[in-house]
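Blackboard transcription, Thursday session:
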Amino acid sequence: MSRAIAMTDSPPAAPPAPARRRSPLAAILRHPGAVLGLVILAGAIGAALLAPVLYPASPWRMVQRPFIPPFTLDRVPLGTDALGRDIAAGLMHGAGVSLLVGLVSTLAALLIGVPLGALAGYLGGRVDDALMRFTELFQTVPSFALAIVLVAILQPSLGSMILAIALVSWPPVTRLVRGEVLSLRSREYVQAAVVTGQTTFTILRREVLPNTLSPIVVLASLMVATAILLESSLSFLGLGDPNRMSWGFMVGAGRTVIRQAWWITAFPGLAILLTVLALNLIGEGLNDALNPRLSRER
Amino acid sequence: MDQALTPPGVAVAVRDLRLALPHGGDRPNAVDGVSFDLLAGEILCLVGESGSGKSMCAHALMGLLPKAVTVAGGSIRLGQTDLLAQDAAGWRDTRGRRIAMVFQEPMTALNPLMRIGDQMAEMFEAHGLLTPRERRARAVALAREVGLPDPEGIVRAYPHQLSGGQRQRAMIAMALALEPAILVADEPTTALDVTTQAQILKLIRDLQRRRNMAVLFITHDFGVVTDIADRVLVLRQGRVVEEGPAAAVLGAPREAYTQALLAAVPAMNPPARPAPDGPKTIEVAGLSKTYVTGGGWWRAPRTVAAARDVSFALRRGETLGLVGESGSGKSSVARLVMRLIEPDLGTVRLGDTDLTRLNGEGLRQARSRIQMVFQDPFASLNPRRTVGQIITDGPVAHGVSRFDAMERAVRLLALVGLDARALERFPHEFSGGQRQRIGIARALALEPEVLVADEAVSALDVSVQAQVLTLLEDLKARFGLSMLFITHDLRVAAQICDRIAVMRRGEIVELKTAAELFANPEHPYTRDLLAAVPGRARDAA
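(Written on the board underneath:)
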């Protein structure tokens, strides 16, 4: 025993200086674009939360004459649309729908994509072939067209929209996770888990998936942005939930009068643009923070 | 003031070189006050363990320091110029023309999409020399000079069509293109097999003599130093420990650190060992595995035999070495034995169970009897799990409670020479040698009968390597383990193995006790391998 202890190559009592790992949060806060994105996103979330307080009435209610330009009446600061509905109220209520659809559909897409990708990458062989062909089936169909068909079949509602968006946006997740798992599978620590007799499920859960987390988080942040765009596009075509005000619907409703009343489409359009931009900036910041080897500062 | 000119006969004068690491590193300076003269027509070896700053010195000479490392002081004089004071244009002119460099990894140092000859011609192009026609002619001449076969043809080849040794020859040809007075070689043979390494070392030596160049040779391998150095500079943590003629430093080192380093280099003569006479724990018979890659409608698939009819037996308490060059199939055999890959043919019997017949749950249960220690101490531990979890995951998977497994883990850590506090920490907080100890503790946690060590000490510095080898030997004796020890390093094999099997192209060409193999090798390939081991001169002395 004494011999074994005498062989230590450095005294264990003096731990080596822990490698300085900046916490991901601190790293994001050093990224000016990401901070801007977080601020905009916080604004959008704030609007969604405050909507029922500031505008307790339905955003569909007509409050004034139609076509009031913005910044002319204090009661309707952003003007009114073709039916006299308050645009500011619509924007705030729409924020909630956009964010909810973006977030929930992304989560649902991850729930489909991550397990499929992990199984395909880890088991390989025929399972991989079958799952990948299945994924390609979805990838070859134009996603927006598929989403339209799904919503049309299921009847437009918040739930059907979320389902449709999730069903068209999981294939990239599967591809990403499969690629990551393929490279992780041959890592020595995964092989070590195999030879110590751990079950496949445990290995995937403990050894493989946690190490695919950073690219998944980055992809997810960008998927939320895409989902918001999809939701807007569906609503623009009138396939949104008829009971919920949404940005896409507002743009669609105002498009026929865009030359007389630019503000009806411009404000919700700007809201979509800013939110998507914010999420992309956050995604980029996350990428730099979580995948430091790929970031440009090195 | 410093004299402006380097004295005659001195190619490069490095004075009091200090390179600062970014804050938060393990020490403030990567290189701290290093001074040396590189004389014209000599090979100076910079030797040191990982982190000694030897590569930093080489990169400073080429102006290729990483962005985070800054020059904190000192000078590097080449003729009339202080290299550290010159601007980017000055560096561009210096590189290639006055100082050239050969890198460690010839595959990544060559552009995979450019023909070899074009890459050589690029050297002239970058410095605006010669016409395109002359450049091509020079490329062929260079290829001939570095001993590439079929120079006219090979300049039209892409890097992936060349072997590792040929690529390194092409790199050397590029470095020599503009006839620099100084060649910096940063571990140029570390990625190569021993037989190839011997050829490349000879080539560098010959070229250096023929062209009367000064060569700064960076290496961690004292065998290589013995074979090539005129003078030796030993570095430790960024400082010079000892400097002098090769014969003096290697033959009669003055400093304790150099003595310790040299003592840690395993000797080529296997110590006498009692013949193990225990029962057979593992029996491998007729193991075969062929990889088939590529192939399509019009192309024949490429087949590689990773194992061809491999058979051996391992007794209780015995260590069998599998040695061979890269691609010889030794690691494949280890993985076949572990059932990490499936054999095409053959059986692996562990006691009275046939491992190759088991599947699913039965295989998972049987796995605890045979465990593996991996090569790369950085890749073999999951960065997101604590050491305690890493060690106890195996026993827990076999039904031991986490609490009992943790208790056992504490004992195991003590056994491999680590403190119990390591349990709560993550792998990145440990050095390479400590990580390898954790890997060994993980393997032992399942109380296996057989330990398979796949290049388990290859990634470690010599001094740490010696400690880990002693530990393995000690544990083997204590638990009566059988060990299958895979290595490319014949010196290591000589020290730890009872018997050694030499592999080539998936076949065992010779299998004998270590003492016999080194005393009278029969197979010509074994003889080649033994002859190519660097530093044999020092063993003979």
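Lecturer's comment: Residues 10-90+212-261 of chain B form a domain with the Rossmann fold fold (CATH 3.40.50.300).
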